[in-house]
């Protein structure tokens, strides 16, 4: 399953960047929308590939990854 990188705002107004396994970009968007996230921005595949290379799969880290972490 492809990995998508997206940035979204949670119900508390906190903006964060997340990696999500999804069938396609629409599925990735819907997964976060259904959890109450808003202002969802899907990043292109190049960004997802770069993020995957920089950050090995780590579920604890993925839940808390922010844009600052990626700078």
Automatic annotation (TrEMBL):
Protein name: Uncharacterized protein
Source taxonomy: Bacteria, Pseudomonadati, Planctomycetota, Planctomycetia, Planctomycetales
Organism name: Gimesia aquarii
Domain of life: Bacteria
């Amino acid at each position: 399953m492809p990995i998508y990188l997206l940035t979204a705002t949670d119900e508390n107004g906190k903006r964060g960047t997340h990696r999500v396994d999804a069938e396609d970009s629409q599925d990735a968007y819907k997964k976060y929308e259904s959890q109450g996230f808003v202002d969802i921005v899907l990043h292109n595949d190049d960004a997802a590939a770069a993020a995957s290379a920089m950050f090995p799969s780590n579920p604890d880290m993925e839940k808390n990854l922010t844009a600052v972490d990626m700078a």
